[in-house]
Amino acid sequence: MTSFTLDDLARIVAQRAAAPASESYTAKLLVDGPAKAAKKLGEEAVEAAIAAVQGDRQNLTAEAADVLYHLLVVLQGAHIPLSDVLAELERRTAQSGLAEKAARKS
User: Fold this and answer.
1) Taking the model in full, what pTM does it have?
2) Could you give the 3-state DSSP secondary structure of residue 79?
3) d(CA 34, CA 84)
4) Which has the closest alpha carbon to 31: 51, 17, 43?
5) Of 59, 64, 82, 101, which Cα lies nearest the Cα of 13?
């Protein structure tokens, strides 16, 4: 088990986003706006889904890491802190998933 958390990753993403694009892949993804980072997030999500369907645990683990990283980059670019996403998840888990989904339709 590791002690590395999503909060740790979010801090690293924030630090690297502030670096020059010539020195940071994170900054390079964000320098021209949200499209590049969002596209990479979508690509990684598709790759993770394919690995899941294929039952490829090792590749799914690697692709899931890519998805989490790129999601945090997109959130960084939108100035949405991870804590806001976690608060939303906490709010949603206060009820069953089916009830929460039904409530969103209205």
Assistant:
1) 0.88
2) coil
3) 19
4) 17
5) 82
